[in-house]
Amino acid sequence: MNYHRASWLCSAISRKHGTACLRYYSQGTRNTAKAKAQSKIAHIDAERHFSPALVDSFHRKHDYLRISLTERCNLRCFYCMPSEGVELSPADHILTDDEIIRLANLFVRSGVTKIRLTGGEPTVRKGLDGIIRRLNELRPLGLESIGMTTNGIALHRRLPSYVENGLTHLNLSLDTLDPFKFEIMTRRPGHDAVLRSLDVALHSPGLRSVKLNVVVVKGLNDSEVLDFVRLTADKNISVRFIEFMPFTGNKWDKAKMIPSSQLLEIVSGEYPSIIRAPDELNDTARSWKIPGHVGSLGFISSMSDHFCSSCNRLRLTADGQIKVCLFDAKEVSLRDEMRRGASDAELLNVIGLAVQGKQEKHAGMEDIDVITNRPMILIGGTQPRKSRVRSLPRLPAHAYFLDDTLLLPHLHRRWSSSSSQSDLRLTHIGSDGRPCMVDVGNKDVTKRSATASGRIYIPRSAYNLVTGSGDADSTDKTIQKARSKGDVMTVAQLAAIMGCKRTSDLIPLCHPLQISNVSVTLTPECGVSPVPPPGDQGGLEYSIKCTATVACEGKTGVEMEALTAVSVGLLTVWDMLKAVAGKEMKIGEIIVTHKTGGKSGDFTRDA
Question: Would you say residue 9 lies in a domain?
Answer without folding.
Answer: yes
